[in-house]
Design goal:
The complex is a heterotrimer.
Chain A lengths: L18 E2 L1 E3 L2 E3 L6 E5 L4 E6 L4 H20 L2 H17 L1 H12 L3 H22 L17 E5 L5 H14 L3 E5 L6 H12 L7 E3 L4 H8 L6 E5 L2 H10 L6 E5 L5 E4 L5 H13 L11 E5 L3 H12 L20 H16 L3 E3 L15 E4 L6 H4 L6 E7 L2 H9 L6 E5 L3 H10 L4 E4 L18 E2 L6 H4 L5
Parallel strand pairs in A: 1-5, 6-7, 6-9, 7-8, 9-10, 11-12, 11-16, 12-15, 14-15, 16-17
Antiparallel strand pairs in A: 2-3, 4-5, 10-18, 13-14
Chain B lengths: L31 E5 L5 E6 L3 H20 L2 H17 L1 H10 L5 H18 L3 H5 L1 E2 L6 E9 L2 E5 L6 H12 L3 E5 L6 H11 L8 E4 L3 H10 L5 E3 L6 H11 L5 E3 L21 H4 L2 E9 L3
Parallel strand pairs in B: 5-6, 5-8, 6-7, 8-9
Antiparallel strand pairs in B: 1-2, 3-4, 4-10
Chain C lengths: L11 H8 L7 H11 L6 H14 E4 L7 H12 L13 E4 L4 H8 L5 E5 L10 H13 L4 E5 L2 H5 L3 H15 L3 E5 L2 H4 L2 H13 L4 E3 L11 H18 L4 E3 L7 H15 L11 E3 L1 H15 L12
Parallel strand pairs in C: 1-2, 1-8, 2-3, 3-4, 4-5, 5-6, 6-7
Helix pairs in contact in C: 2-11, 3-12, 3-13, 4-5, 6-8, 10-11, 11-12
Classes of the chains: A alpha/beta, B alpha/beta, C alpha/beta.
EC number (chain A): 1.2.1.3
InterPro entries (chain A): Ald_DH/histidinol_DH, Ald_DH_C, Ald_DH_CS_GLU, Ald_DH_N, Aldehyde_DH_dom
Family (chain A): Belongs to the aldehyde dehydrogenase family.
Chain lengths: 474, 296, 312
Amino acid sequence: MFEYAPAPESRDVVDIKPSYGLFIGGEFTDGTGTSFKTVNPASEEVLSEVASASADDVDRAVRAAREAFGTWSAMPGSERAKYLFRIARIIQERSRELAVLESLDNGKPIRESRDVDLPLVAAHFFYYAGWADKLPYAGYGPSPRPLGVAGQVIPWNFPLLMLAWKIAPALACGNTVVLKPAETTPLTALLFAEICRQADLPPGVVNIVTGAGETGAALVNHPDVDKVAFTGSTEVGRLIARSVAGTHKKVTLELGGKAANIVFDDAALDQAVEGIVNGIFFNQGHVCCAGSRLLVQESIAEELLEALKRRLSTLRLGDPLDKNTDIGAINSAAQLAKIRELSDHGELEGAERWSPACALPERGFWFPPTIFTGVAQSHRIAREEVFGPVLSVLTFRTPAEAVEKANNTPYGLSAGVWTEKGSRILWMADRLRAGVVWANTFNRFDPTSPFGGYKESGYGREGGRHGLEAYLDV
Amino acid sequence: MSRTESPARLAVRKTYKLYIGGAFPRSESGRSYAVTSSKGEFLANASRASRKDARDAVAAARKAFGGWSGATPYNRGQILYRIAEMLEGRRAQFAAELADAGTKSPGDVVDAAVDRLVWYAGWSDKIAAVAGAANPVAGPYLNISSPEPTGVVAVVAPDDPLLGLVSVVAPVIVTGNTCVVVASERAPLPAVTLAEVLATSDLPGGVVNILTGSVKEIAPWLAGHMDVNALDLAGVSDPGLAVACEEAAAENLKRVLRPAPADRAADWAADWAADPGTRRLTAFLETKTVWHPTGI
Amino acid sequence: MTTSFADVASSNVALRTFLHGLPGVDRVGADQRAAMLGTRSIKTTAKAEAIDLAIRMVDLTTLEGADTPGKVRAMCAKAVHPDPADPAVPKVAAVCVYPDLVAQAVGALAGSGVKVASVATAFPSGRSSLDVKVADTRLAVEAGADEIDMVIDRGAFLSGDYVKVFEEITAIKEACGEAHLKVILETGELATYDNVRRASWLAMLAGGDFIKTSTGKVQPAATFPVTMVMLEAVRDFLAATGRAVGVKPAGGIRTTKDAIKMLVLVNEVAGDRWLAPDLFRLGASSVLNDLLMQRQKMATGRYAGPDYFTLD
């Protein structure tokens, strides 16, 4: 047996302060709300104490953004571009520090924050930097105007990447922003604030307000916010859609999903197994576009499941900072409770539960990679977003049945198709009601590629030329 | 008794009904309401659609969605062009109905409606070239984004009984959506006549469903319907109703195109004679992005 | 549960049906999986163990036109005592030479436990008649080779004459007698991973004891994804037939890092049964000194210098 010795990434690259304030108008200031603690979900160790923004603080932030809007929006796009290029470069320069901090605060494996999140974050800023002085060529008219102040609320699953998805296009288009990171993962956003200062970004162009749901609500409902961008649960998305009714606010929502990953009997099996694993166990399944429903053609179901189980047995769960860790910690106690509740319910509903032999650390929030077989479309684990490392396995007989089952959900964010037959891929891709279809791959992201959902998975697209529309008055 | 001249011939009046799933039913509620001309003369009793009619119309639109969205863009363009032809052929009838409704220069307005249909017809096989993209991702993948219809769209048509109506329906259906339209409450008759045009234009039944009646009564049911994917509030003039509809639409995250704000009445959103741009097309399109590896 | 493949090679149609019925390999996905495994960080005790295991798996190889008995004798000495200064360094698995030099190797290694492998069958191109290939094999076997590394007829494979490839392997296997047969696929000439998987199965079905990536004379040679695809094949073949076939990447493995990455592939793809010299070999020569230098660095804490390791 080849035991890998611990290979921890050094924590020394990050310098976490005992407490953090809000970033408003280019300065760190105290919040008037009750501050809260952010913990390392892998150990429950308190990392720092973070200010909570009250409605007054949010108002200050929006005013700072409004004040900055005039100069920022009037600045030549080529100048805005250079600020964004600067930010992208600093992110690259400080990427190890950001990756370690992200893994500490979020619980995701360092391999993912280092090899996936951070490269994409930098790439996103580079990409939109290039748009800032090319907006007249984007297909939104000869001189598209920014919207004004964008209020942005992001989730905890990809804290810095979601920040990049929100801030980069907003700034490129000439908007100023007030961004609220998730309550459980504020630290990289606060480090980003420091990066904005290193880049000499004019004060007020980016403001970061930390806090919980009330802070987010105060931001979304602020009358001087022109644009609301939200990534998170469908439940909160609904509230936001309702709260902006009758206002002038433009809204984009990137919400939940229950993606089908469809494997045909002629698929490249080893790669399909990798795709299934990457689809649902990447980032502990804390992925809105996760392939949480495996639809496998009945004729190969047994063979595929055997291969999948064998593969799961090689997944390495544990210390997120260990470079060999595949599965990190669940982000919070609340999320762990939700995953447990839905999984227990899966068993109650009669589905068969399986996890590889896998020792869970004693402290922290952990859940083993889990497969449910014998799942029916009517089971809650097949319908509700678990947002954890839990895969429901269903079978199908024909392509039409696969499409029908895949689409039989109020969500429509993503889908996967695995087959070596090209024409079948295109036929399936045509019929799947999902914003992203990964064929013979899964969970790929790129700044040039629009991302976003159908139906209750939200509206608007992030990434690519399409992503500009959300921040332009068109 | 002396013989008299026979009286002037009594006209056969048209019965104005709903248009659902390609058929012309009366409201299941049996209700109707009197439509009068701009001068207050009685014109006809229009059906007053109920929430059940709205429900039936949504079901018809959903049923038609698969076929219509799956039709080739060329085919959809041909059918929209055919609608324009049929409308042109009934120019006089529409002009008369518009005159009754108080529309100025009714003949010009019919011409504009025909031209609008022709304009949108051409978009059927071009919008993908404008709204789609081949994305140069940093990896060995083919990555293509293409626009797809959102699904079933509920449309509250503006109080511009023909040009406004055509200007909101054509962009919705040309890309493959199906719709349920609430016609102008004040002047619904051209909408019903347009339904007759649609019914004879090779447009599959259910692609466009037209309801007449009370906007205030029907619109909230459509806004809250969980099998409607998007909502066009173009014709909602009551701000309170617009807010209520938008709130109801939030329940299943419908895409909502708000009515034109008062300060923007002169642009694409309210001036039906203005160049409409592509905004009404893209508002009811989803972007689907497909990835595939490139390798041997 | 095992499956009988008795009739699979009865005709080209049957073989083609079988081989083309194997699941395809998506190149991009396979490359990514191999690259991800390449990021595994093997440190401290794990690295020390991996280095010794890798040394024990080396087929120390010289396959030059300029090879001489003297060169072979020197290499054999190194095979038995890779680091004369440190007796704790394990012996390599085998030396690998041309058939005409087998006798020298056998003599030099007598009683050492290090095996003698020989390339045969008109190595490296394989372009000769079956009779010549069989004679070449016998030459090596009769000189005392424990292992024969044959090359497949890539031309026959690429033209779809799978029966010819199959029958050549069975004929060489027969000529091997007691000697173990390693079947070189020369994956660099097979072009696709689908072909690598098919050729792997073909070689296993025909009785090969090992499947080997390359001759070392063609680029690319032992890439990580190709080795991974072959490891998947032996894993699946064991599940289907109950017989474990070995894997030997050869060519291009020059550093300790590469060798350890190979072991990670073995560990996570085929499983620990293959983490032994009887089922996994590294065909290489220069990698040995790098392994020794890394080994010394682990032991002393100082970076090593090449002048302190022998160049045989």
